Amino acid sequence: MRKKSRSKALSLSMFGPPPLLEGEDAAAYDELLARVSAAANPSDVIHEIWVRDVVDLTWEILRWRRLKKKDLEVLSVTSVTLSNYYMDLLEKIVVLDRLTTIAETRRNNALREIERHRTALAQTLRNKNRDVEDTELKAIEPKLIARVVQPSTMQHDQRPKN
Prior knowledge:
By secondary structure, the chain is mainly α. Helices cover about 80% and strands about 0% of the residues.
């Protein structure tokens, strides 16, 4: 099973290089991609695109949160007397919060699309299965009727033995 999820993660590489900035951990991104891919188990290229979107957006969210943490650490040791610097830092934190919220919204939308697509696919498969079952029942029904009707019209000697 692990081999299958790894190959699916590797197939996602067709969407280009990961959105890593200099100094970001490529191995951590690859692990995130592999784990999300294994959890989502994409069944087609559309799912693969959404999985890559979810991973990229999750990575972006984590990036914004790391930056916000660094700024909060600087803010916590910054003197309020340096009011311009302090206010600039606060403004930057607000912007990072907005960017995080935007990325979270986009990621959640991608997750909803995956769910919607899977639900639609499941419904399509149920309908196809029902169509096949109905077709088989229609094809079998006349044969069963013929078998039920036919033995009663046969002579006693010709009836099949149980």
